[in-house]
Specification:
Blueprint (H helix, E strand, L loop, with lengths): L1 H14 L6 H16 L1 H45 L8 E13 L2 E10 L7 E2 H4 L2 H14 L8 E5 L7 H15 L3 E5 L3 H4 L6 E8 L4 E8 L2 H13 L5 H15 L1
Parallel strand pairs: 4-5
Antiparallel strand pairs: 1-2, 2-3, 6-7
Helix pairs in contact: 3-5, 5-6, 8-9
């Protein structure tokens, strides 16, 4: 019995376990040996499972690519229909889908939004080809089309109407209004046509404090009367005329209607 006890203690030291754990260690080693003996058969089973999984992936990825191409056709048509009122009537929007060999969790496709800003020019990625003002309007058209497809809950447009006016600015205001029905849309604007269509109008001012040593920025919501006055100022400039006030009133009423 003492010899057996000494042997067990020696085995415990050799395998770095307590004597009481030797039995479990023996079972684990026996299972490992059995797995090695059955390794060839197990390899065949695993290779078959891997081949089946790959076939399922390829089938699912191909079906996803097909659905993406059909959705891209509809998206391109919808976005291009929005471009003419935004003074991008000579531009074209397209969704480029390139199927690659590398597989990933989102399929085998690489997707980019491409634009062509003028006839005869080569299309390219929207973020590289479009200028700042064009890019803002392309994104506005895209967001309007995708507003009901899980867009961000709040969208901010910073001077999206730069360089445009009249009917184009009004078209931008119309699309911001449509977008605002589904998400919260904030627009920094100098265009009275855009401001007149807002549900809430805020005036941002900067005041010099401490004899010009510090500047404070203030944001205040305009009332109905002060809003008309601000839109008239946006129309007329420094001197607000009665004609400008009347024009501002017409813009507000047209937007409300």
């Amino acid at each position: 019995m003492e010899e057996r006890l000494f042997a067990l203690r020696a085995a415990g030291r050799k395998y770095h376990v307590q004597v009481d754990d030797l039995a479990a260690l023996g079972r684990r080693y026996a299972a490992d040996l059995a797995l090695l003996d059955a390794g060839a058969d197990q390899l065949i089973v695993l290779e078959a499972a891997a081949h089946e999984a790959k076939e399922r992936y390829v089938t699912a990825a191909a079906a996803l690519s097909d659905r993406r191409r059909k959705a891209a056709e509809k998206l391109d048509k919808a976005v291009n229909a929005e471009l003419k009122p935004l003074k991008l009537e000579r531009a074209r929007f397209s969704t480029e889908i390139a199927s690659e060999q590398a597989a990933g969790p989102h399929g085998i496709d690489r997707i980019e939004f491409w634009v062509k800003t003028n006839p005869g020019t080569r299309p390219g990625p929207m973020m590289k080809v479009a200028s700042g003002g064009e890019l803002a309007r392309f994104l506005l058209a895209l967001k309007v089309v995708l507003a009901d497809r899980g867009s961000a809950p709040t969208l901010v447009f910073d001077e999206i109407d730069t360089g445009v006016g009249g009917a184009v600015a009004d078209a931008i205001g119309v699309r911001l209004t449509r977008l605002g029905r589904r998400v919260q849309a904030l627009a920094v604007t100098h265009a009275p046509q855009v401001a007149a269509r807002a549900d809430h109008h805020y005036l941002i001012t900067k005041d010099a404090l401490e004899k010009g040593k510090r500047v404070a920025t203030r944001v205040s919501e305009l009332t109905t009367a002060s809003r008309r006055e601000e839109i008239a100022r946006m129309l007329a400039g420094a001197e607000i005329t009665e004609e400008a006030r009347a024009a501002a009133e017409r813009l507000i009423r047209a937007a409300a209607g």
